[in-house]
What does this fold into?
Amino acid sequence: MTDGPPETTGAERAELTSLERTALYKSLGNPLRRRILEYLGRHGEANSTVLARELGESSGTTSYHLRKLAEQRLIEEIPEKSGGRERWWRSLPFSHTTPDPATMVPEEYAAAAELAHLKIEVDTALYRRAHQEYRGPEGWAQIQRHGTWLTREELLAFMRDYHALLDRYGHAREEAPDGARPVMMRFYAVPEPVGEWNGEPTGA
It folds into this structure.
C-alpha cells in the first residue's frame, strides 16, 4: 500500500526502520494528528492557536502533536513566520509504501493493521460520497470499474504509469491553478480468488 498523509503527495522517502514505520503508523492512525495533517494540507499553514480554534482542542494539545509530527518529518516549521513562542507549521510532501506484512515485527504489524482499518472506514465513506455526488461522466465525482488479464510485470508497469499520470496532472496546493480543488483518489487491484496460480495463493 502506498500512502501519504491526507492531501499530500511526494517522492518516496528513504527506507525506514521497523521502529520508524511503527511510529509512523501510530501517528497516521491518531485521529487528532490526521485532522492536523488534513488542515495543513487544505490551508497550507497554521500554528497551534489556529489549530486549537479550528479543531476544538487546547493550544497545548495541538502544540504537542505538532512537535511529534515534526519529529517524523511529516511537517516542518516555517522559520520566516515563527518568532518567540509562536511557531507556524506546514506539511511536507510525503509518500510511503507499506512493506510485506510477513516481514513486520508484531508491534509494527499491529500498528499497520490498526491504520489499515481506519483507512477502510475513511475510504468506505469516500466511496459512498462518490456515488452520492456523481453527476455524470463530466462531473467532479468519477467512478470507474474495470477487469482484465495481466501478468504481474504488466500490473507493476501499470502502477508505475498510474503514478506518472498523477505526477503529470496533479499539483501541489501552492501551485494549483484557478479552479482546482482537492481531489481524493483511491486505487486498488486484486487478482480473482482462483486458489493456486503457478503455486502462489491468490485468496481462495
